């Protein structure tokens, strides 16, 4: 390892310098700092080692079982909602998966709704229309300043609990709304539906190719092509046409009132709806402020220049303002996504079966393995946060100002 | 959740000290017993309008405080939900857990805890609205059932419905109170819990007379106080504090007549229980009059039963299985000699 190039004075040391000129090991700041870091690391490692060893010894002394064997044992309790096949005979490991998927579902649904709502509100707050701007400001200030847990309770207890019983359900388009949730007909694909699916994916590929072609053409000739409209037309139109031509190969499993409740169809439980509403509405108010800050950060000169070129207001917003605003918006937006994901753990307050409720709740309590269960739960939230962060950073780097 | 996390952290830190001080010394030094109770189940542990905790489980805490500190009021009650309770006990947040907790093999052998007795023999049942006209749990096919999370109740229900081929949807809440409210507001067709607690929670519903229990009792639920494993002195103290209450009832000692009996009785059993004769406080590391203090300040088991869950209370539960063995029930304490 050569050290000559890293001297603080930056000068090139003479070759074959007498050893006396070389600083003593403890006088070399680089080596010294390295030494202290190694010492600190060793001390930290020792502390962690001691904690883990002690914990294990003490757990054993008290006759508490440790390890992850419990994950393969039969769970024996039911869960109200699961995206995968789950029965009481499934293992504790499956309860982890069910909880994890339910957490991811609510996080994705929440992020999707909060982003759309937040962008609309953020832009609306800057609108020239007094009514729209004030409405948006009012919304943001109200929902930003009420604790999330209260909002969850509000939607769950004040709104959804007051819905009628299954026998007096509100009915619309073959769906039913009652205090057990929203029960919708479930689509059942029949023979020939595969063609529709193929058509859907083919349309996506075609849209992507058109977008590429149109960008190239614009760079060469300056002519524009209505890419978005064409894509929407393709993605909706192609599957729809195939669907019609292949003789409507889709049955519907209609829910029916039998005994206590509806049988068949898809049930969206009220806990999910309440949590989704609360999380999206709450986070949207923060995203709206982030978007407003981003738009205000774009120099007014940019808008004026666009107006001078005769661009329409909508086009200015879409092509000039928003792309530049995004650079400011993305980092705080990432934080909001992370917050939303972590806040979804408040689900346990109303009984939505998310990871914290199912795994860090019931499973922990049935097995008593607090350390393992809590460690796994924390690892999940850490991983989800890191993944979100990683994706958003990648996206941020992609849309950063590129100079040509 | 937060408490579980904190408890898990405390658990890890507490366990870094290899030798923990005995619970008896800790309690004496602190001058108060820390007792884990429910966050509110009428008849078992619930604070009254002045903030005093009352109930059958609360009386177990009070009897331990009377035995150890000579003062039944020196108890700090810590409300815990079902998910938090064992972590709170094992991590040292509470000295005793007296919280409608069912004695099971897994809990006794794998969680680092010991059950010190059974202060209520219970069984699990189902509450339904009477207007549905149901006569059996088997009519509940397809029903939605509200239940508290992390309980044996949840497991018993799953087992029972599975073996009888009945489909159901569980809706799980943090506390029994929330589950009962959800049932009351129509979120579920049925609410399941131990029948004693169901009786208590029913009194809080909008129209208690419109709610009834289905006839089946689907499980054995021996409920009792719990201590940490590995502290035999403390285990014995809690065990015998409760036994003293049972023996007092059997001997006819009550809080009203205990002073008179102490002065006059010649019955050797009474003399032993009141610390005038026999093993006294030796072996338990307690004052000789420890059992006298329990009877004087808390009363015997029968008194506690009647005022909290029995005839004199809004619950109005029969003694049933909880009558003394001499009356045809299951309550039986080893002799004090």
Automatic annotation (TrEMBL), chain A:
The keyword Transmembrane helix applies. SUPFAM superfamilies: MetI-like. InterPro entries: AA_ABC_transptr_permease_3TM, ArtM/GltK/GlnP/TcyL/YhdX-like, MetI-like, MetI-like_sf. Keywords: Amino-acid transport, Cell membrane, Membrane, Plasmid, Transmembrane, Transmembrane helix, Transport. The chain crosses the membrane at residues 34-52, 96-124, 136-158, 192-213, 225-248, 268-288, 373-395. It comes from the Bacteria. Residues 100-392 form the ABC transmembrane type-1 domain. Residues 1-22 are annotated as: Disordered. Belongs to the binding-protein-dependent transport system permease family. HisMQ subfamily. This is Amino acid ABC transporter permease. The lineage of its organism: Bacteria, Pseudomonadati, Pseudomonadota, Gammaproteobacteria, Oceanospirillales.
From TrEMBL, chain B:
The keyword Aminoacyl-tRNA synthetase does not apply. Residues 1-21 form the signal peptide. Residues 32-261 form the Solute-binding protein family 3/N-terminal domain. InterPro entries: Bact_solute-bind_prot3 (IPR051455), SBP_3_CS (IPR018313), Solute-binding_3/MltF_N (IPR001638). Keywords: Plasmid, Signal, Transport. The keyword Transport applies. It comes from the Bacteria. Belongs to the bacterial solute-binding protein 3 family. This is Amino acid ABC transporter substrate-binding protein. It comes from Amphritea atlantica.
